[in-house]
Amino acid sequence: MKEREKQGVTRVKVVLTKEEAAQLLAICARGEERTVAEAVRRLKRSQTSRHGSSCGGWRPALEVIPEE
Fold this sequence. Notes:
Radius of gyration: 18 Å
Strand content: under 5%
Structural class: mainly alpha
Helix content: 40-55%
Number of strands: 0
Distance between the termini: 45 Å
């Protein structure tokens, strides 16, 4: 068993823009949120209010895969 598994460590890969990363870091540095999850929720709320309501939700832009 790996050392990380013994300690209960979970690795998470997060994909952010530079602007989002800077905002998230600023939120954490100011100590406004106790957990990263709370900071991410705050970041999402601020983006939603800035870009308007997202009633339809996010939809991926995928290419059509032809059936053969």
